[in-house]
Design a protein that fits this description.
Elements lengths: L4 E4 L2 E5 L11 E5 L2 E2 L6 E4 L6 E7 L5 E6 L3 E6 L2 E6 L10 E3 L5 E5 L4 E5 L5 E5 L7 E6 L5 E5 L4 E6 L2 E6 L7 E6 L5 E5 L4 E5 L5 E5 L7 E6 L5 E5 L4 E6 L2 E6 L7 E6 L5 E5 L4 E6 L2 E6 L7 E6 L5 E5 L3 E5 L1 H4 L3
Parallel strand pairs: 3-25, 4-29
Antiparallel strand pairs: 1-2, 5-32, 6-7, 7-8, 8-9, 10-11, 11-12, 12-13, 14-15, 15-16, 16-17, 18-19, 19-20, 20-21, 22-23, 23-24, 24-25, 26-27, 27-28, 28-29, 30-31, 31-32
Length: 332
Amino acid sequence: MRIATALLPRRQRAIILAAGLALLAGVGVYALRSAAPTAPFVEYPLRDPQDTPVAIAAAADGSIWFTIDRADAIGRLRGQRLERLPIPGRNFEPLGLAIAADGSAWYTDSAAGAVVRITPAGEASKFALEGPIARLARLAMAPDGSAWFADATGLGISQLKNGHFKRYETATADDGPYGVAVSAAGVVWASLQRSSKLVRIAPDGAMATIELPRRGANPTDVAVGSDGSVWFLEFRGNRLGRLKEGKFSEFAVGEQNVGLSGLAIAADGAVWFGMVRSSSLGRLRDGRLATFKLPRDKARPYSVAVDPDGNVWYADISGYVGMLPARAALAP
């Protein structure tokens, strides 16, 4: 997997990546009505002007974790206070981050070729992959406590469980595995950005790949709803996709490519995502799209997460961690 990059004002790079979903039945395309609600965002600028938050995740205790590109620390926000927890080595493009049931944070460390676990107390454990080079993408935690992540070097999706890795290889080196999500039933869904496919790995290890109906859509992040629906972003297609009960649907975001990145599903079923090129968050709920313009025109929301209270958080690679309060996120 090759990571596409673009220069940003006041920042090193914006990482715009893509992944895949597949067709099981007919295709439905929905044009969405867009609104632009006024939103009272809360933002936290990172202290170091070189810090670039990339991935973000919400813990059950309300703390917010985020990775920092090219830093020897991982970030955490607790009680409106930003913390910088030391990690073993300087990270590079830390795209994967998820929180386990015990409150520990797991993230991908491509520079070290490893997956790292850090406890709420700041104690870190590193699990090194085989081989000298690793290019890792998103990461998700399964109900059994295992970590799943996209592993481009290993040409597929890997599982880390009880300190041991298990790799599920995809067809070719050009697949570009990127997004990963795990359902409540333990089914793993992952995306292959270049070959435009979705990967499904059952709890018993059986793996299947499904072709995308739209060639060259390059969908990115993947998320699974409480009803089992699989959602994904089509980066080049500028659409949200959904696989539900064997049927594939698409939801158009707009005429211009907004740079879709980051995906999270709230408790009310709303699908939240970042719109990097338009400095906005997007919400799809009940078939209707709403856009929430961020306070700064140079904002670049790359990853999103929803906390237990319904607040929507985002990692802004222009140097901020931000939040849309639940009262605004839940509003019509």
